[in-house]
Amino acid sequence: MPTVIVTGSGGLIGSEAVAHFARAGYDVVGIENDMRSRFFGPEASTARTTQRLLAEFPGFRSEDLDIRDGEGVRALFERLRGSLELVIHTAAQPSHDWAASDPQTDFSVNATGTMNLLEAVRHVKPDATFVFTSTNKVYGDRPNFLPLEDVGERLELPQDHRYAGGIDTSMSIDGTMHSLFGVSKAAADLMVQEYGRYFQIPTVCFRGGCLTGPAHAGAKLHGFLSYLMKCTVTGDRYTVFGYDGKQVRDNIHSSDVVKAMEAFHAAPRVAAVYNLGGGRASNCSMREAIAHCERISGRTLDWELSDEARMGDHRWWVSDLSEWQRDYPDWRLEYDLETTLREIHDHNVERWSSVAA
Q: N or C: less crowded end of the chain, CB within 10 Å?
């Protein structure tokens, strides 16, 4: 039976990958040490998700391992050498704001941890597919210099602009403010590419927009749509940072992300890079997202606007999916914004309401 290793297996994309590949007949081994609870507090713990996966998929194994432990990572890969086919790397410190509070931990998790995994693949199973969940933050604040127009509830590009259909990978990552999180992820992104080129390992960097879904443990510093819906349901106050709430994000469901991973593994390339998000089919401004959450939940969000935007944050991001769809034409987005938000609400509303009570 082929084996897939999933790092961050208790997180949003990691847990979706575990379920998907377990159902597909893979032997799935997760690497998860619940760092999210350290980053964002006990309410963001992945422990509940890990226990659910262990109960639902009897063949799934979860290793309590820190990816910064190079020797431990290498030893695990050695044990699985004979059947290892795929490594899905989703473990990360994912927050702009948290990174500024502890840059060394942020960099060690995002950059050094990634290199430990690449070294293990290089020495143990160099023909295994390596999938990395990168981020659009590798472009820094370059998108903020686009000629955006205020069109009411959102900022938007003129229809004749080269990026009107979405931003592709031709956008430069140089000469911009990345945030410390963006730097650590950019370092990892480039390392994944170089290990692919130097050692002919089939690697891909998926530079994601906002990745979301019902399993997202939304917290104040990370997981915007999930946390927004949670605050709408519980009555907790939500703060929108900067741009009059008109900043735009594209949003992609975790299921669509994992199906992209599966498609790449079926026909892998060396040192591939793609922007992956909701694109023009699934995007919204903060103001539009609030309206969606209020309508779906039947509640009014208590929110305030801060004039202070987060450093390096994007005013507008929509992914151009054409490069990815050119190479993998059978992949399609199955979730739009409305379906995704309804699923987030319906999956969590009972638990959130009981906590609020």
A: C
CA-only gyration radius of the chain, Å: 19
Rounded distance between C-alpha atoms, residue 100 and residue 181, angstroms: 8
pLDDT at 221 over 70: no
pLDDT for the residue 222: 63
Instruction: Please state, in angstroms and rounded to a whole number, the distance separating the CA atoms of residues 265 and 132.
Output: 12
Beta strands 272-276 and 203-208: pairing type? parallel
Spatial CB neighbours of 219, under 8 Å, sequence gap ≥ 6: 36, 40, 41, 43, 44, 227
Contact of 142 with 167, CB cutoff 8 Å: no
Q: At what angle are helices 337-356 and 286-297 packed, to 10 degrees? A: 60
User: What integer is the mean pLDDT of 184-207?
Assistant: 98
pLDDT at 224: 82
Per-position b or e across 22-49, b if 16+ CB within 10 A of its CB: beeebbbbbbbbbbbeebbeeebbbeeb
Q: Hey, what are 39's tokens? A: 């980053």
pTM score > 0.90 for this model?
yes
166: helix, strand or coil: coil
**How many CA atoms are closer than 13 Å to the CA of 50, on its beta-carbon side?**
22
- Predicted confidence at residue 38, as pLDDT, reads 87
The three-class DSSP label of residue 112 is helix
pLDDT bucket at 22, cuts 50 / 70 / 90: very high
DSSP H helices in the chain: 12-23, 35-40, 47-56, 70-79, 96-101, 103-107, 113-124, 179-199, 224-234, 254-266, 286-297, 322-327, 337-356
Rounded Cα gap, residues 353 and 299, in angstroms: 12
Q: Are 229 and 47 in contact (CB under 8 A)?
A: no
pLDDT(262) > 80 = yes
Instruction: Produce one character per residue of 207-242: b if its CB has 16 or more CB atoms within 10 Å, e if not.
Output: bbbbbbbbbbbbbbbbbbbbbbbbbbbbebebebbb
